[in-house]
Structure formats: structure tokens, C-alpha cells
Amino acid sequence: MKNFLLVVLAALLLTNAAPAQTNPVQDVLQSQRALIEKSSRRSIGPAIDAIVSSGLPQMQEVLEAWRAKDMWQRKSDGFFFAAKKNSDGTYALQSFDSGASVGDFAKSDLKQLKPNSGIRAMIATALVQFQLTDPDISKRSEALDSIARDSEAALLAPLRASIAAETDPDLLVRKIRLNHLMTMTYDADTASRVEAINNMAGDLGVDYRGTLNPLLSTKIEITDIGDVPDANIATDLRPGTENFSRQTAYEILVAAQLAPPEVTVDARDAALEANIVAGRVGGLPVAQLSTEIKRNAAYDTLVTDGLAAPRITATDIDESLAKHRFFEVYAEPSAEVTTAAKAALAKSQSRVAVSQAVDLGLDALSLASIYFLAAIGLAITFGVMGVINMAHGEFIMLGAYTGYVVQLFIPNHTLSILVAVPLAFAVTFAAGVALERLVIRWLYHRPLETLLATFGVSIALQQLAKNIFGTQARPLTSPAWLDGAWAINDVIAISYIRIAIFILALLFFCLFLFIMKRTRLGLETRAATQNPRMAASMGINTDRVNMLTFGLGSGIAGIAGVAIGLFAKVTSEMGGDYIVQSFMTVVVGGVGNIWGTLAGAMMIGGFQKGVEWLNPSNTLAAQTYMIIFIIIFIQFRPRGIIALKGRAAGD
Amino acid sequence: MNRSFIARNPSVLVFLALLGLFTLVVSVLSEGFGVGLISTSFVKTLGKTLCLCLIAVAMDLIWGYAGILSLGHFAFFGLGGYMVGMWLMYERTRQIVVNSLAEGVLPPTPEEIQAAIGNQIFGVVGSSEFPLIWFFADSLVLQLAFVVLVPGVLALVFGWLAFRSRVTGVYLSILTQAMTLGLSLYLFQNASGLRGNNGLSGLQNLPGVTAPQSAVSLWFFWASALALGLGYLLVAWVVSGKFGSVIRGIRDNEARVRFLGYSVESYKLAVFTLTACIAGIAGALYYPQAGIINPAEVAPIASIYLAVWVAIGGRGRLYGAVIGTAFVSLVSSWFTGGQAPDVNLGFYTIKWVDWWLILLGLSFVFVTLYAPRGMSGLIDLLVRKSRGEDT
Amino acid sequence: MRTTTALATALTMGAALPAIAADCTIKVGVLHSLSGTMAISETTLKDTMLTLIDQQNAKGGVLGCELEAVVVDPASDWPLFAEKARELLTVHDVDVIFGNWTSVSRKSVLPVIEELNGLLFYPVQYEGEESSKNVFYTGAAPNQQAIPATDYFLEELGIEKFALLGTDYVYPRTTNNILEAYLQSKDIAKEDIFVNYTPFGHSDWSKIVADVVALGADGKKVGVISTINGDANIGFYKELAAAGISADDIPVVAFSVGEEELSGLDTSNLVGHLAAWNYFQSAETDANAEWVAAWKERMGTERVTNDPMEAHYIGFNMWVNAAEAAGSADVDAVRTAMYGQEFPNLTGGTAVMLPNHHLAKPVLIGEITADGQFDIISQTTEVAGDAWTDFLPESAKLVSDWKGLGCGMYNTETKSCVQTLSNY
């Protein structure tokens, strides 16, 4: 594989016109037929080499078709063709040699070649030399992708050669960057390698660090104590230090067969079992060997009798360790390169750490905004009105399913979201008003019973959704412009959908403040909540106000449902995932105050991400600790972060 | 004193008599006695229902009488089950391991036995070391004590913190819900040492007992009936005295009771802890009949259902809690068991598996709105009517 | 009632069908959750069983008797599984049970099945480390799914660094343990294996996906082995797509994501990511085409087939053949007749029931396509399922052989049977 490029170049120069032969491409392919059919990355190399080194101009097309799974084999004679599916289900075959149509065949007469992605990567590497200078910009970009994924020393020369002719500025930047990266590893000249490393020192790219780190890979070597090894030594290792225990050191010696192994419990027991004579071993009856002490004693007797290997004592270990020197050796022979790489990497690391902290902060912010969005409806119904609505989660679900149903009718994702958001609001607003009119209005003086009644509504709604939509998760797809992520650098990135949720949360926050502080409804709501009888006697229709406020809270939950469905999933049980968290958010923040809800969401999101960062392998633990934290927090601030004072606090 | 207590509460005697009669009838008709009219699986269902009735009685004490809507009592129920499950699992495994190791050439050391038990119990969840909390698992007496102690201590600590800070009403409900959620999340972790999501299983097989399940199920049925009877008696006694008057006072107007000089927090804490202990006992009897305990059992939804049962049965009446629980859980298993006939409406067939929960949810709304006294309100009505006819 | 209806149908359909005797029915228990969290997966299997039973009845039933399905709903409630299993075996007197999905539900049912000597066919890929006399495991053991997929990663994709992401329960835990041991035996350093566990239904994946991307910083090729369960996958794949991780950069192979799970997702951004199963709907055989057509006709064209369905398909047909061979539906007779039963896979080749109650089945690896299906890119020959993995020291010395040794947990070192009943 390494040298084929040279061969190719030579072949390309020598070939002037297609030979008079009939099927040169097919002949080459047939000569490699067994390997191509076997289709394993481990054995395909020679076949690709042969195809490329044949120097035939059609080979680029062959490789591209093969990689795209468009190369098919005719079962009758095993010939390979490019195939296209016809509308009637048959496949039109095309000769690679002439480009001429060979005819239509049924699928059962053909076999599709399905190279796995390992092979596809190798094909891509082979294609690089054709594509680097291809007039088609997407193919040049593909070639660079391929180099970035699997770089090879042989690709350095063609890459450098293609830089001068590059017209596209973006690609030019990428080519130069790749050239730098490859120079670090593959260039023959140490000075230019060091220069390339220093040029990019402090860069944040995963590719850059991914290039430096292999240069710094080490392995542990051992020599006799007096010897000076001829190698690029990274560090000397002293047995008994923190990172290199005496135990580890001795195990390395044993593995290298420089010291005898310690007698393990298993080895001891095996020796005992092997030496049982007439029900006794080591002077003791077998039946007595049911404690460690007795077994050790019996083994010691075996050792004195010369029937078993002696135990390794601490002095033995000391002696063995004292005789050897341990050190880490760079795989890279050049000390200049490793020194430069080490310095450059250290520079990157500190910047990476900062970026990671920023990224974590963004994650926490995003999680907080999701919690906030899920809780904001509750902040209205529970926080302002004091109504415990256990069906809040189901309103979120209702909104998400509305989004799903809208997408069934409007396939355009952008348009469907634009329709779904107001529709979800309308649906859940109506559901909220209905709930308030039919159930909650009768229970304003019995808050605990509201909790139970709305729980009944919650299980009924959940089951109803299951009966209608089934138990499978339903797809709710975001429009294409929300795909992908906003990447500030290789470490800090956040997906657009999360940004959208953040903006939505912010928008609702402002909307809430506006309604509560600047509109008549807000004024009336606050009045009706604080003192319903007084409000009523001032001419406020408290019934209507309660209904509208509850509807508003529910409607916002519906919109939150669409947003949550876009970024996670739409199932009948999604409401349950958010209900407890939402209540926590409101309670921790402080009831009756939107700033409190915001603070609660921020605290919960931040705390959870913090624990995740401390313990990255167990996300469940983060959630557990968060709950425990909340329980303890509420003990000390029962009214939440931002507690209402005075009369507004009520009871 | 005791006599007058019974005399003042004739319903307790009626309840105990009915419970005894029910136990007798079920026993005689069960497979264990050879009649076989009631299958072993149904005896188990009935036994489990009795345990649920017991925790419902506890729930009624704390909610119906003391006015504290705890949405976390299943946490205590589950803990009781875990405590007893640890011993069952440990002892059963120990017997298997000892028998198996006896086949080896060398007689096993205690360390080997311990390691092998650890491997059998925890191997399936990817570790083999004994977590610290299994330290006493070999002692039946200690684990049985933990059935009461662990839920009791948790309730004491949690209650002390919460009542001290004057967390009341819906806040307390949400906080207790957080407690049970936290516990279930904790138990879900493998690191908790209680086998994570898998929980403890095979609990119906008592170590060293060779009697068939038809007999074992009866033993547990009797034990559950006894526990329910005793629990009922205890709670009825508690609510009938002065203590009962104080907690009812707290329910109706906490501030007023406090001004009268009572330490409201202590009363609340006592009720919370007592009910937690009862819940622990109920759980310890429940899970050997169910056969398996795992974290999903203590998820918040279970405790909410408990409140539902008590509400449907009727709060503030102990027999109401029992009736509600027995009725809803049995009807629920009948509807979801596939035995309930489908209703064909012509254009649509109502399958109860699909529609039962909707019915339950709506009936719950209905009960809260129109029958706050639940089913026991109906009984009161009948009793009053019959008395009216008598006189 | 059902019998007479079937008889009437048989009569009206004419003599072409073999007559079914009216006086006998063989009851088949179906123990799948129809409500609760697992209904999403298990309802499909209940429908599969009903389809298979109807098909068999149309062919004349078993032993001249009509099959009657007894469907119960354990409602994703694990203790309820034990209760319902007991009900099936004692109240309904079923001859065989097809059921369960999660491992914990299986562990719940095991003591009941063993006590009452029932017969359970368990159709889902699982963590192994179990072999009950009364259970036939028709899904994949780790060596029939996880190990071949890991080999594929190592050999075909050249992965040098692994992220093992799983939901926090027993299947991912055990599978990841086995894989960690296996990878280390293949010279992958412990530092190059990143393990993470998330709760069921997890939806906030940004940090974990970022962690996985960061793994690439030391220049090794990273691959993800996912044992993430159920609908948590939706959020995971959405985040993966949003982060722009292509299958060429960081391939993900999933063990719990099939056609059914993909139907809740737009897969256009996930093309090329992988799944390992013993069956994919896209398998090109006549038997499969027939099965898929029958399924879609019964359930609707948008419905898909998946691996556990095939496991039930094989298990059910093997049970039918074993009952015919034994001349009885009696549990012990059928179990003895099961060993060595062969039945053609839907993917080609033949599945064989081994004495350890596992199947020999081919392992398939498929790439996700834009239409929510899998493109099969690798298919092995039949791999024999191994009850006790060879890659963990404690279970390497155990074997299961119910035919020869009569023991499901036989210690080859001490040459003794550890236990004949499971310790659950």
C-alpha cells in the first residue's frame, strides 16, 4: 500500500491511450475477484493496490462506484458492473470499460458489493490522489476528509503538490493545516517537524492534539542497573513512588521473566492439591485445611520438603528491584521532536481545560433552560395560583404530540414547526381551561386534593395518549436549519436546537414578566391570587382570571413540549420525566417569583452538570445527588432561593 | 383502659372478626389445605393485598388523621422489603455455595465461601465484592430488626429536618416525593450494592425450607393477616386516645394546636416515624410473596397510588383505607389480567387492558370532587340508614 | 368456543386443511407487557406470537390439536411477571410460555418456572451468565452479538479506543464487563476504554457526546459500543447527529437498537452507524420476504420486523417440531426433544438448539440507512451461544450441558454441578 502511489504515477505517465484490449478494467477486477468478494479490510489491500496501479483511467470511477455500494456482480459469470436501479425494480448494468449499457437484470441475478466502512476508508485513501486536484470541489473536500481520518506518509507529497493549485480559500486553509499536521509526523527532516509543531503550539484542535499525542507515546523498558540505554528517554521511574508502585514494578519484572512470580493463593492451593498423599498434605489432614493459616502452614511444610516453590519475600522483591532500572521510552526517536511536542501540548492543554470549563458551562446553561422551559408553565399555575397540577407533564406531552401530528400533515419541517408552536399552545390552552373549569375550580380551598385529582387526570391522559398513538416513540424532526451545532472551537460546541431552546426559554421569561407586570391580566391575576375576595369585590372577575391564567400556564407547557420533543423524544411517558424536576425547580427557586424559578433551574442544571463532571462515568449518580441536594437545600431555605416576604408570602 | 377502648370503638372488633373469618375461609379453600378452590397464585395475591392494606392503614394515620400527605411512604415499604430480602438472598446462596464447595479437594475456607457467595449474588451485576451494607446479611435477627429500624431512622431524620423547618402542606408532599425518587435513583445505581435495577430476586424460596409454595404462601398469608390485624389495632388505639385528638387538631388547625402549648413537631415526627415502621413491616411481608424487589418498587408513582387507594376508600376511617386498597388493587389486577370481558360498542371495542387506567384516573377525579369521604362514606350512609330503620 | 369457531372455519374452508380434533387444545402462554414502559417493545412480540399461533393453526395445529393463546399483561411490573407466570402455569395450565423482555423480568419469573416445571422461551439478546433447565434462550448471548461486533470494530474498522455507553442496568453492566475483559485480552489498554452509564430514558446527552469526541485527542481511532436501551437512544442519536459525528469518524455500534427503535427517529443523519443482531428486516431470503409480508399484512404496512421477533419465530417453530417429535406437549418430553432441533433462520442458514439451551445462529452487522432500515454488511456463519462467558475468570470455568451432564452450571475445575436450580 505504501508504494503504490509511485507505481501509479509511473503507470499514468506511460499510458497514453486505452489499449486495444477489450475489457482491461474487468480483467483487473476479475484478477482480484476473490479478495473483492471476501470484502474484509484485512485482506483487501492488495486488490485496491492492483486496481490503482493498473493505471486505467476508469479506475477512479470504479473505486467511487464501489465505495458508494453501486458496484454489483453478475451471478452468472461473476463480472462486476456499475448498477442503477430502474423504476420497475430491475437493475441496469453498465460496463466500467466502455460505459456501455449491458442490459437490465433482476435483483436475484445480481449480488451487490457492500464494502464495510473500513474498506470504504481504504478506497477513499486510494482515491485521494485522483481527487486532490479534481475540478469538483466536493471531491477535493472528500479527499481532505479522507486524509484527516487516515493519514499516510505517502499522501504528504501529493497533498503538498496540490496546495499551489488550490483555488477555494476554505479548502486551501484545510490543506495547509493538514500539511502542517502531516509534516509533524511524516517529514524526514527533523527541523521542519519541530517547526511545524511550534507553529501550531497552543492550537485547540482535536486533530492537532491527536497528532502530537502519538509522538509522545511511551512504553516502559528495563535494563540492568548500570546500563545506559540508547533511546529517547521520557522519564526515569523509581519503584515505590506514587505512580509506580513496587508491586507494579515487580509484576513488570515477572512479565519480562527477570524475576520469579509470587506465589498466589491459587498457586498455593494448586500445590496443596497436587501433593495430597493418603488424605494428608504438608503434614496436615486435608479435612483440617479450612482456614488460611492451616493452608499456609501446610504449604510452608511443602516448601521445606522441596515439593513446592518457595514464597517470594519482601527482601527478594527488594533485591530484584534494586538490580534493575525502569524508565519510560518515547517511541519517537528524535528528542528534539518530543521536547517540542511536549511543550506544545502543555500549551494546548491549559487552553483545552479552559474551553472544557466553558463547554460544561454551556451544557449546564442548556440543561437549565430545558428545566426552566418545562417548569415555566408550572411557575404560573403553581407559583402564582398555588394550584398543584400533576397533569403538567401530560400537557408537555400533549404539546409534543401536537407537533408530531402537525408533521404528519405538513411535511415541510420549517413550516410544520411554525404551525405546531401556536397550535400546541392552542390545544394545551384549551385542555388547561377545560381542566380548570371541570376540576380545579372546585378545589381551590383544598390544595392537597387538587394534587390527587390532577394526578388522576394525568394517568388518564397518559393512557389515552398510549391508546391513540401507541407505545412507540414518535418522530418529531427539527427543520434542517436547526441541525448541527455551533462550534466555537473543537472543544466548545453546542447544538443549534439547544440554542433555540435557550432563546425560547428567554423569550418566555420576558413574556412572563411582561404579562405579570405590564398587563391587566397580570395585575388581576396577582390580585386574585393574593386576596380573591377583595379582588372580586373590586370588580375583578376572578373566575375568568383564574381560567385564563391556568390556560396560559398550560399553553406554555404545550410549547415546551414541542421544544423538548424536538431535542429528545416523543412518547406517552415523557411527561413523567419532567414533572418531578419541574416541581423541584419551582420549589427550590421560590414559589410565586419567576426570578426564583430561573434561579432554581440554573442551580439544578449547574449542580447536575457539576456532579457529572466530577464523575463522568455515572450520570445516574448525578441525578441522585441532585435530589439529595434539593432535599437538604429545602430544609434550610424552605421558601426557596428567592422567598417572598410579608403578606405576599401568604401561607 | 383496653376494654373501654374496644367498647368505644366497636368497628375495630367488627373489622378484626371479619379479617379472622376471611383468613379462615381463604385458608380452608386454598390449595395448601387440599381443597384447591383458591389457587396458590391467588393466595399470594390476597396475602400481598393484606400487606398493602397494612401500609394503607399507616397512610391513613398520617394523612387522614394527621393531615400530612406523604407521597413517599413506599420508600419505607421498599426498605423493609430490601432488608428481609438481603437475608433471604444471602442465606439461600450460602447454602448453595457451601454444598458446591464441599465438592472440591480442599475443604473451603471462610474467605472462599464469602467470595463465592459474593460472586453468585453480584456476579450478574458485574462485581463480586460484598458491599458494606451486607455486613449483617448473615444474621436473620439483625436483618429483621433493620426492617423496622432502617425505615424508622430514615423517617426520623427526614421528618426531623422537614418538620423542624416547618415544611408543610404541598411542599412537604413534594419533598417526600423527592425522597422516594432519590431513594429509587440511588438503588438503581449498581454502586448502591443492592444489585441495581435487578434488585433482589427469588425471595419466595425460603432458605432451608422444602415445603411447597402452596404451604409457604399460606404462612405468609397468615403472617400478613396477623400483621394487618395488629397494625389496625395499634393505629385504632393510637387515634382513639388523647394522642389521636392532638393529631386531628394538628390536621385541622396546626397553629391553634401549637398555641395551646403542644409540640406540634414532635407529634408529627412521632406519627411519621411510626407509620414508616409499619410500612417497613408491611414491605418485609409483601416482597417474599411477590418474589422480587427492585428500585422501580419505590418510584414516586407507587406512593401516589397509595394515596389514591386511601382516598377512594375514604380518609380518616381506618376501615375505609383497607376497603379502598383491597378494592382498587384487586379490581385493578382483574381488569389488567385479561379476564375482564371486552365491551363491544359496535364501532369500537373497549379493551380493558387499554382503558382501565383511564377509568381509574377519571374515577379518582370523580371521588375527589364528589365523594371526598370515598367508599367508607357510602358505608356510613348505609349504617346510618339501617340504624334509622332499627330505632 | 374458540375451538368450535376454528373448527367451523376449517370445515367451511373445505377438506384442503387437515382436520383439527375438537376435543383437545394446547395452551400457549404469552407473557409480554402490554402496558407500562416495556409495552413499547413487548406488544410487538405478543402480536408476533398471535401471528405464529394463527399460522400454525391454519396448518393444522400441533399433534392434531388446536393451539390456544393465553395472553396476560404483566404491565412492565417485575413482581407481576412472577405472579402472572404462576397464574399461567397453575390456573391456565399452559404447556409453554413465550415471554419476557428485560433481564429483571426473567429473573423474576425463573423461580416460578423452575418450581412448577414450566417451559419458557426467552427471545431477547441478553447478558448470559445463566442457564435454567426450564428456559430456552432464543436471543443472542454476548458471544453471539457483543463479541463479534467488537471483533468487527477491531479488525474491520481498526478501532483503538472504545467508549462503552450503556443504560444502568444488568445487561449493559455485564456486557461491558465482558467486553472490558475481552478488549484487554486484545491488548487494548484500560485507559483506552471509557465507560459511562445513564439512567433509563435519559435525554441530556450533550456532555457525554462531548466526552466521546474528546477521546480522539490522543490520535487513536475511537468507536462507540452502545448498550443504551429503549427511547434514551432517540436523544442520543439526535445529539450525535447534531454534533456532526459521522460514522466514518466515530462509528457507533448498538446492541439494543433495531428497526423498531429507529422508527421513532429521522435516520438521515445517522447513515452508516451500526447495529449487531442475528436478524435484520432487510435480509434477502424467501422465508424472510414471506414473513415480512405476512406481518405487514396483519399489522399494517408501516410496521417493521426485528430480531426478537425472529427469535420467537425460530423458538416457536422449534417447539412445534419438538412437540411433534416427542408426540406430546409435556414439558419434559418437549425439552428432551428440543436438543439438536434445527430450523431455518430467516436470514439464511440453520439455527440449532444446543444442550445449553442456547441457539447457534449467524451474527449480522448492519449499517443504518436513510429509510430506517439496516444494510447488512457482514454475516458470519452460525455461532454457538455460550451461557457462561469465556472472558470473565469466574465464569470461564463453568459450562452448561443439560443433555449430557444434566446441569446448567457445571464447574469444570472441580468437576461438579454447582446448582441445578438457578440462584436467580
Automatic annotation (TrEMBL), chain A:
Q: Which residues cross the membrane?
A: 364-388, 417-435, 485-516, 547-567, 579-607, 619-636
Instruction: Report which superkingdom the organism of origin falls in.
Output: Bacteria
Q: How does the entry describe its membrane topology?
A: Multi-pass membrane protein
Q: List, alphabetically, the GO terms of the cellular component aspect.
A: plasma membrane
The signal sequence is 1-20
Compartments where located: Cell membrane
Annotated GO molecular function terms are: transmembrane transporter activity
Entry keyword set: Amino-acid transport, Cell membrane, Membrane, Signal, Transmembrane, Transmembrane helix, Transport
Which InterPro entries is this protein grouped with? ABC_transp_permease (IPR001851), ABC_UrtB_bac (IPR017779), BCAA_transport_permease (IPR052157)
Give GO BP annotations, semicolon-separated. Answer: amino acid transport
Q: Which Pfam families match?
A: BPD_transp_2 (PF02653)
Family in the record:
Belongs to the binding-protein-dependent transport system permease family. LivHM subfamily.
Q: Which PANTHER family match?
A: ABC TRANSPORTER PERMEASE PROTEIN, BRANCHED-CHAIN AMINO ACID TRANSPORT SYSTEM PERMEASE PROTEIN LIVH
> This chain belongs to which protein, by name?
Amino acid/amide ABC transporter membrane protein 1, HAAT family
> What is the organism of origin for this protein?
Litoreibacter ascidiaceicola
At the highest ranks, the source species' classification is: Bacteria, Pseudomonadati, Pseudomonadota, Alphaproteobacteria, Rhodobacterales
TrEMBL record, chain B:
Q: Does the keyword Cell membrane apply?
A: yes
Could you tell me the membrane topology recorded for this protein?
Answer: Multi-pass membrane protein
- One of the record's GO cellular component terms: plasma membrane
**Which GO molecular-function terms appear in the entry?**
branched-chain amino acid transmembrane transporter activity
CDD domains to which the protein is assigned, alphabetical:
TM_PBP1_LivM_like
Q: Which UniProt keywords apply?
A: Cell membrane, Membrane, Transmembrane, Transmembrane helix
Query: Which superkingdom, per the lineage?
Result: Bacteria
Q: Where are its TM segments located? A: 73-90, 140-163, 170-188, 219-239, 266-286, 292-311, 318-335, 355-372
Check the record and name the InterPro entries matching this protein: ABC_transp_permease, ABC_transptr_urea_perm_UrtC, LivM-like
**Where's it found, cell-wise?**
Cell membrane
Coiled coil, from the record: none
Q: What is its main location?
A: membrane
Tell me one Pfam family matched here. BPD_transp_2
Protein name, per record: Amino acid/amide ABC transporter membrane protein 2, HAAT family
* Originating organism: Litoreibacter ascidiaceicola
Classification lineage: Bacteria, Pseudomonadati, Pseudomonadota, Alphaproteobacteria, Rhodobacterales
TrEMBL record, chain C:
Keywords in alphabetical order, please.
Signal
Secretion signal span: 1-21
Q: Which residues cross the membrane?
A: none
What the entry lists under NCBIfam families is as follows: urea_ABC_UrtA
Q: What is this protein called?
A: Amino acid/amide ABC transporter substrate-binding protein, HAAT family
